[in-house]
Amino acid sequence: MRDVAVIGIGCTPFGEHWGTSFRDLFIQAGALALEDAGLSGEQIDAMYVGNMSAGRFIDQEHIGALIADYSGMATRHIPSTRVEAACASGGLSFRQAVIAVASGMEDVVVAAGVEKMTDVGTGTSVDTLAGAADREWEGFVGATFPGLYAMIATDYMHRYPLTREQLAQVAVKNHFNGARNPIAQFRQEITVETVLRSSLVADPLRLFDCSPITDGAAAVVVAPLERAREFTDRFVKVRASAQASDTISLHDRADISRLDATVAAGRWALKDAGLSHSDIDLVEVHDCFTIAEICAIEDLGFCRKGDAGRLTEEGVTALDGDLPVNTSGGLKACGHPVGATGIKQICEVVQQLRGEAGKRQVPDAVIGMTHNVGGTGATVAVHILEAI
Amino acid sequence: MSVARFWRKIPQRYNLIGTRCETCGTYFFPPRTFCPECRREGRIVDYRFPGKGKVVTHTVIRSASEQFEHLTPYVLAIIQLDEGPRFTAQVVAKPGEIEVGTRVRPVFRRIAADGESGVIHYGTKFVPVR
Questions:
Q1: Which of A189, A237, A374, B26 has the fewest C-beta atoms lying within 10 Å of its C-beta?
Q2: What element of type H or E holds A282?
């Protein structure tokens, strides 16, 4: 297996892009990534695109072909493949590109993610997202995504010491970071009161516990590490790529409050990289809801179960804390165009490791981790990147 | 949900017909036709659950998809049947009326309808046992 490097990144602003289509979002992100890598389109050998549900959001399937066509790759006939794992589609798209390069099958590969969510109403959006869980036995009885994570929160708060205020502080922290990220959907700071005064969506989760509906695209270019310098001197090494599965339904999990796919992927990634938790300088976790960030920090093994709320309250996960979590603003403040999120996480960590994160820069960041979840934890991708 | 897709699960949805693996004795609801533990060694048979169980965790849905919006706020829970399996269901109760561990029993209820003229989906909800 060859070592792999990320040689370019590009991300559109995240938000409600009424004037921009699905394909144009992708083109923007792809062009930014190629420009960043100093590449021309002729040098691309293959493309992967993470996308959860263009079929329901814009009535369009065959996304691999669509983006190959509109990015000018169709006439070169290079392979272009859609990757789908609900909200983890982006993370898996990146992993497929890494595997393609590591195996020696391809050299220069684009991994992208794109989602256009605002062309449908909120009701359709909520129902489409519910397809990331079990339609027959969760969606059928009226389960929504916030509802499923709310049931994780109820179970968690019944068993561990986590206050409603600590949960709110996850959102406050992520909005603080988002306010310092030029591509973030929400660039304003909030207070605990903002969260606690917002309307209930699914008890105990309120509107400000939830990530928003977002349009956006992100793309990265990966290449063999040994060839990275041919293209750029701002490359980042991929230290580990891990993926794990669990039951599709929340109710079938061994433990409602623990994402065992996160536990597995986190362990495998650290083992493959030969690293321990103390080596990680920052981590982008999948905070689709505030409770999800609490679970992620614990299930990745950064602290014991039940401690993440207190650590958040103490500022350990803040930008200037010992373990900065979601410096991008996370899904909560940066936005969550589902298929693009996993790639945006890679973009954020690469920016941090290149020392280009501006007002949200973590000083001397060398090793960063990303954690991307599909559904309520049925698919998890964990990646570890290192500055060279 | 298409007519056929709803229709084929009517015994399961109306009467809690699940399955049981005779090799390892595990009960399944939602039903599985392949035992994840015994795999090809498993022998799956139907099992009708009496439906007695308890609330494992719960929430109140206040913002729902279009099919369920008229029901809000409604109580959703993960129920654990006495035989072991867990699944998701609505509980006919007021917000705050149930807690973790509340005993429940099944009731036959309308779940949703497929538009104005489509099929009405019936199924099983639960009520707290007093």
A1: A189
A2: strand A282-284
Say if B92 is an interface residue toward chain A (CB within 8 Å).
no
The radius of gyration of chain B from alpha carbons, rounded to an integer in Å, stands at 16
- pLDDT tens track for A307-327: 999 999 999 999 999 999 999
Give one DSSP letter per residue of A291-337, joined into a string.
HHHHHHHHHTTSS-TT-HHHHHHTTTTSTTSSS-B-TT-HHHHH---
A256 inside 8 A of chain B by CB: yes
Does this model's pTM top 0.90?
yes
Q: What is the CA radius of gyration of chain A?
A: 19
What does the block give as tokens for A320?
A: 């200037």
Token pair 């039903």 is found at: B31
ipTM, two decimals, is 0.98
Work out the burial of residue B92: count CB atoms within 10 Å of its CB; fewer than 13 is exposed, 13-18 middle, 19 or more buried.
middle
Stretch 183-202 of chain A: residues touching chain B, C-beta under 8 Å: 199-202
- For chain B, which residues make up each domain, given as ranges? 3-128
Q: Which domains does chain A have, with CATH numbers?
A: 4-121+214-236 (3.40.47.10), 132-211+239-387 (3.40.47.10)
Does domain B3-128 fall under CATH 2.50.20.10? My reply is no
Residue A364: its pLDDT value, please?
97
Judged by CB atoms closer than 8 Å, whether chains meet at B112 and A144 is answered as: no
